[in-house]
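== Polypeptide entry ==
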Amino acid sequence: MIANGPNNMSVKAIPGEYNLQGVREMASGFLLKPDGNFQFFFIYGGLDRHGEGKWVEKNGRVIFNSRPKPMADFTLVNSNAGTNGPVTIKMEGGNPMLLRHIFSSLENGAEGSWKQMSQEGEVSFPVQKVETVSLLLEFCPERFSTMAVPHPGHTEFIFRFEPTIMEVFFEDFSLQTEPEGLSGGHPLMEGDAFSYAKQ
């Protein structure tokens, strides 16, 4: 437990709702519960992301951790040998509004290798031997998945979203306690000068 002081709160005073301040057209923040659990939210236009886990206080900082992040955000459902035509990457199921926001690479995400999917959830590459497929959802730029394919000679690969694709995962993310709230970084934005006011 930390002592009360001019620059921080007592542990008992920490639980509550903290909202991000000074960022226009965006709503984000944390709900810290007395039992040590937390919920995170991020709303920007039609984008809604969330996270949850455990929080603890240590040396005037609140430290956030969630369950381990899944190995991949996409799962290979099927692949086919097809014809001698282009290599095709397809998505099945999931929110159709997200399909055109998916990018794919056959070169482990190397710069300049990404191609955007169509509204139907398809993208084509010149015929080649495929050893890995990388997929990235534009709304989750902090993570992308690279998967080895079991049949490099195939030319059609069908994937689906994992249910956790929009979830935000925390690993020792921390914020400084302040008299009026919390300060520090943001799990989805660059910089370390954000402030969160306690409601």
Observations:
- The chain has two domains: 11-66+168-198, 74-161.
- The first strand starts at residue 16 and ends at 20.
